[in-house]
Amino acid sequence: DAGVIQSPRHEVTEMGQEVTLRCKPISGHNSLFWYRQTMMRGLELLIYFNNNVPIDDSGMPEDRFSAKMPNASFSTLKIQPSEPRDSAVYFCASSRQNDRYDEQYFGPGTRLTVT
Amino acid sequence: SQKIEQNSEALNIQEGKTATLTCNYTNYSPAYLQWYRQDPGRGPVFLLLIRENEKEKRKERLKVTFDTTLKQSLFHITASQPADSATYLCALDPATGKLIFGQGTTLQVKP
Predict the structure, then answer these.
(1) How far apart are CA B87 and CA B79, in angstroms?
(2) What radius of gyration do chain A's Cα atoms show?
(3) Is B101 an 8 Å CB contact of chain A?
(4) DSSP A40-88
């Protein structure tokens, strides 16, 4: 099993540009989570999906952020337009979620720098 | 307000000693609590889960306790090794199906 796959691993972009982060969860996992990690705020949940349906997007900072999960093996997080304060490491995680206690498996993250 | 607090200062210990990390929470009533390890430049990795009706959980050199009265979890690494150096995150589910993470405590084990 390859684990959770994220791309790109690093992204440098200019303010105002659109950024798309991609995630492939572990096969058979039915929940997917997008997190953002910064030194100041730690690891914050942005949105999570269960069976491809968004369940809770209360952590999405503002309308510039959007996430989709068109099928069980792919999800995107889009920022449009990007701003310097969006600079962070973005993690995708997946879990079986057969019950509420299943652990989450994290991808390697995408380090985003917005200049 | 709801808070999860972990020691913000790094914990430095000598190899072979027991490391104890603390996770305190307020205004939550979690059904379970998880601990993760994060190495620099990598995503968190799950270590242990403890449920509200469990007082203690062990896995090899790791031990977690969960005191719902004190609203505290302790994470112990016995016979610590330099390879245990990392940031350790606690996380709880406030019965919403999603995890809330603490800021993490960095452990440095010196040979």
Answers:
(1) 17
(2) 13
(3) yes
(4) TTEEEEEEEEETTEEEE-TT--STTEEEEEEETTEEEEEESS--GGG-E
Q: Point out the residues of chain A with pLDDT beneath 50.
A: none
Question: Structure tokens of A53?
Answer: 């349906």
pLDDT digits (tens, 9 = 90+) for B74-84: 999 999 999 99
Which residues 30-89 in chain B show a CB within 8 A of chain A?
A: 31-32, 34, 41-46, 49, 51, 89
The nearest alpha carbon in chain A to B89 belongs to: A43
In the numeric block, which tokens belong to residue A79? 């920022």
Mean pLDDT to the nearest integer, B66-90: 96
Which carries the bigger pLDDT value, residue B52 or residue A86?
A: A86
